[in-house]
Input
Amino acid sequence: MGIKWLKNFGHKITELKPSLIPLTASKNSLQLCKQLQGLTLKNVAIKIQDKKTNKTIYEDFGEMLFTHFGVSGPIILSGSAHLLRHKNLQEKLQAGDIELLIDLKPALSEKKLEDRILRDFEKEKNKEFKNSLNELLPSKMVEQVVELSGIDERKKVNSITKEERKSLVNLLKCFKITISGFRPIEEAIITSGGIAVQEINPKTMESKIIKGLYFAGEIIDVDAYTGGFNLQIAYSTGYVAGGH
Output
């Protein structure tokens, strides 16, 4: 109601959109996310990519979480803010062109990761492949990685070929989830959009159009990444507005 009222009084309103919101997985990735539900990955690198144009929409490093609907967590929430602004987004989501690429071992190059896998394999040469990744991955993820690798789970690690190892490395460096959209606006941490900042005096937070009217917090067209920045915007603008 406040936004409609201010628009009627002549203020310019930037379109309101949810921001910092979890992402949903498409049908072909949803089952995988459900199997990994509750698993938190720390110190991973992500890219949100438009596979049709090969354009990287967002990349980050940090913590993420698998859920029953897709993915969430700090780096996913920050990525959602960029994804929401991507050109022809709905069309691309429907076509399955938006992918989340997860590098599970960003500290290791492909060569170093392959060397690490070889060392693990050499520890117990007669182990079956399905029992060989527990030191490399979270236990909840092993079964899915084994299945996605295409390597026979019963195969002894000493008989895994170089090509199969490289396929495993590629999977760990580029674990893919296809994104279908966003969770409902009620689950968004913040709202993007609002009163145009050009119409506010930054020294007092007073409207330049309506004397005696002051703004603070999310009603202003200012938003930031997750991590307390949006709270700081609310506190700072509220303090300035309250002081005048």
User: Anything to note?
Assistant: The beta strands are 13-19, 23-25, 40-50, 55-66, 70-72, 98-103, 175-182, 190-195. The radius of gyration is 23 Å. The first helix runs from residue 2 to 8.
